[in-house]
Every structure is written in C-alpha cells, then in structure tokens.
C-alpha cells in the first residue's frame, strides 16, 4: 500500500480533511460558548426573550 504512487496524495487529502473538520468543530464549540456568554449578559441586563412574554 505504501508503494502505491498515489499514497502521498491520499494521505495528504485525509490529513487536510481532518484539519478542516477539527477546525470547524473547534470554531463551533468556541462560538457556542461565546453566544452563551452573550445571552447570559443580555439576560442579566434585563433583556428578555420574546417567547417568555407569552407565558405571563
């Protein structure tokens, strides 16, 4: 398998895919934490969700 002339290309393609997927996953996790913090800041300042007004 390592003797295959395309082995380097295949390995590079898989590594690039792993890097892209890992980067996107990290970006999503960090953005989720940031959005959660921003929402908590808004709620602490008195802002409420629109869906909350229907419950009262």
Plain-language structure description:
- By secondary structure, the chain is an all-alpha fold.
- It has helices at about 5-45, 50-55.
- The relative contact order is 0.06.
Which spans of ≥5 residues are poorly predicted at pLDDT below 50?
Answer: none
Helix content: over 70%
- Provide the residue-averaged pLDDT: 90
| Amino-to-carboxy terminus distance | 67 Å
The rough form would be described as rod-shaped
Supply the helix-strand structural class: mainly alpha
Report the radius of gyration as a whole number of Å: 22 Å
The tally of helices reads 2
Beta percentage is under 5%
Number of strands: 0
Biggest sheet character? none
- The helix-strand sequence is HH
Characterize this entry briefly:
The protein has helices at 7-44, 50-53.
Highlighted features:
56 residues, 75% helix, 2 helices
Write the SSE topology.
Layout (H helix, E strand, L loop, with lengths): L6 H38 L5 H4 L3
